[in-house]
Design brief:
Elements lengths: L9 H9 L7 H11 L4 E4 L6 H12 L12 E4 L3 H14 L7 E4 L5 H10 L3 E4 L1 H9 L10 E5 L1 H6 L3 H10 L5 E6 L4 H10 L4 E4 L10 E7 L4 H14 L6 E4 L3 H13 L4 E4 L5 H13 L4 E4 L14 E4 L6 H8 L9 E7 L4 H11 L4 E2 L51 H8 L4 H4 L11 H5 L17 H8 L27 H4 L7
Parallel strand pairs: 1-6, 1-7, 2-4, 2-5, 3-4, 5-6, 8-13, 8-14, 9-11, 9-12, 10-11, 12-13
């Protein structure tokens, strides 16, 4: 079967031939006729089988008739990540070269103003992530009442990223008579419930068994100690010992591990770039383009790069961490061995990964072979003292520290023991000993407040009474509140002088010359 037999328009067929494709993949051969017939489609196929073209090509054919109106797009494609959304836009640009269709991309990290201008002009194809789409809708810049075709791509990834409530809200905002297309590599029960609620008599297209890996991928396990420095050493040995490696994607479970491994490989002279969700859009795009163009050999990434990225010629995939969700393993290794090419996938496992590894092998219904010794054959590293220094997530607390990262074993940072004096050693050895219980405090010298607070009793001048600084008066002064301490104590034992007393100034004693 070729593309001409699927019912695509001449313009689309010409673009497909110009791209060098002649034979459709199984998912494309089965899904395209149903999409052209305006039926809802539920497509299930492993990653790398051409799901994007399975809805892009028929949509281009259907959009040749009609015209977009301002702020009312004709079709809507929802993607879980910015990279997938940008990739779908590239497919519409490539296959729709002979058509005058307006395509808009609504993703985070880009100015709202530029996106508003495109929407206001009228859009035939709107490609968006759920969050940014709802932002435009709530700002009153977008209307969804003209949607003819709704595409939800990588639906299981939407579930993992928590987008299902947003998807349900968007499905209720688009017209009831729209055509809905679901495409995913796996179909968990939550997604099955969603399809039953929003798809009408869908045509189920399942090319292969759910959660299977491509036969062209060679899968191997590599045992390692649980410390991060040991895993980095194993990874470097794998990369340097493989003469067939052209480029590789290295997956980590956490963003902080992506950045740490990127710095480590950079220090050891590897050509490497990083990609994770906390990077701004310009940096993510630059890293991806450098890897696609071949200027960077290694790409250390989180699961943001595991779904749907079209990098056709990736020779190797390394799982620095065993994924927490077994389905992610299928998507990760699906970055290699695409379009019938051969690929290799290596997963570094430790004793902490036994449960996750068992879930992966149970899902793919295949036992993955070890390259080198197995976990049971691997000698235990007792010098690392990992049992006592385990973190809350099963990670060594000493991991992630800066150092030379040469791959040699580094013992955890410990404090050198110091000699204890005899009394302290006794208390540490037996804190309930009689010596501790009967220990008496050091005697303190008796204090003499009267002597400490007493002042000189010698008079300063005639105006100052010597009795006001006596010890009795000072004790009464010290018992007063703080705000009254600056006030002088009254002298009650002397009579109050009348008038000026004995201190009459001389000018008042002079005669005025007047007689009374």
């Amino acid at each position: 079967m070729n593309f001409a037999e699927l019912g695509l328009s001449p313009k689309v067929l010409e673009a497909v031939e110009a791209s060098g494709y002649t034979t459709p993949t199984p998912i494309q051969a089965q899904a395209i006729p149903h999409v052209l017939a305006r039926k809802d489609v539920l497509g299930i196929a492993q990653t790398g089988t051409g799901k994007t073209a399975a809805f892009t090509l028929p949509m281009l054919t259907l959009l040749e008739q009609g015209r977009a109106r301002a702020r009312m797009p004709r079709t809507l494609i929802l993607e879980p990540t910015r990279e997938l959304a940008a990739q779908v836009e590239e497919n519409f640009t490539k296959y729709g070269a002979g058509q005058k269709l307006n395509v808009a991309l609504l993703i985070g990290g880009v100015s709202f103003g530029d996106q508003d201008i495109k929407i206001a002009r009228g859009v035939d194809v709107l490609i968006a992530t759920p969050g940014r789409l709802l932002d435009h809708f709530e700002r009153g810049k977008l209307l969804l009442t003209g949607i003819e075709i709704l595409v939800i791509d990588e639906a299981d990834r939407m579930l993992d990223m928590g987008f299902i409530p947003d998807i349900e809200r968007i499905c209720k905002m688009v017209p009831f008579t729209r055509q809905t297309l679901f495409f995913s590599a796996t179909m968990p029960p939550e997604i099955q419930r969603l399809t039953e609620a929003f798809l009408h008599n869908p045509q189920r297209v399942e090319v292969e068994r759910q959660s299977t890996t491509a036969a062209t991928i060679t899968q191997r396990l590599v045992a390692s100690q649980r410390q991060d420095w040991a895993k980095r050493d194993v990874l470097r040995q794998l990369i340097r010992s493989d003469s067939e490696i052209k480029n590789a994607i290295i997956f980590c479970n956490r963003k902080v591990d992506v950045q740490s491994l990127f710095r480590s490989l950079s220090r050891h002279g590897f050509s490497v770039a990083a990609l994770h969700g906390d990077m701004d859009q310009s940096a993510r795009t630059a890293a991806l383009e450098a890897f696609r163009g071949g200027s960077t050999q290694l790409l250390v990434a989180s699961d943001v790069a595991a779904r749907g990225l079209d990098i056709p010629d990736v020779s190797h995939v390394y799982n620095f961490d065993v994924p927490h969700h077994a389905e992610d393993y299928v998507h990760r290794i699906g970055r290699t061995g695409r379009a019938g090419r051969k690929g290799a996938a290596f997963t570094i496992v430790t004793s902490d990964d036994r449960k996750s590894l068992a879930a992966v092998e149970a899902m793919i219904k295949t036992s993955i072979e070890y390259q080198g010794p197995t976990l049971d054959e691997l000698p235990q590293d007792e010098s690392a003292d990992t049992t006592e220094r385990r973190g809350p997530r099963g990670r060594s607390r000493s991991s992630g520290r800066k150092g030379d990262d040469t791959g040699h074993a580094r013992s955890p940072r410990t404090r050198a023991p110091k000699e204890l004096d005899a009394p302290l050693a006794d208390r540490v050895a037996d804190d309930t000993s009689e010596a501790v219980e009967t220990r008496t405090p050091r005697p303190r010298p008796e204090r003499k407040p009267s002597e400490r607070h007493a002042r000189s009793r010698e008079p300063v001048n005639d105006e100052v009474r010597s009795e006001r600084n006596s010890s009795a008066d000072r004790s009464h002064y010290n018992e007063r509140p703080h705000q009254e301490r600056r006030r002088r104590d009254p002298v009650d034992h002397e009579p109050t002088p009348k008038g000026l007393g004995d201190h009459v100034p001389n000018f008042l004693m002079k005669s005025t010359g007047f007689k009374s």
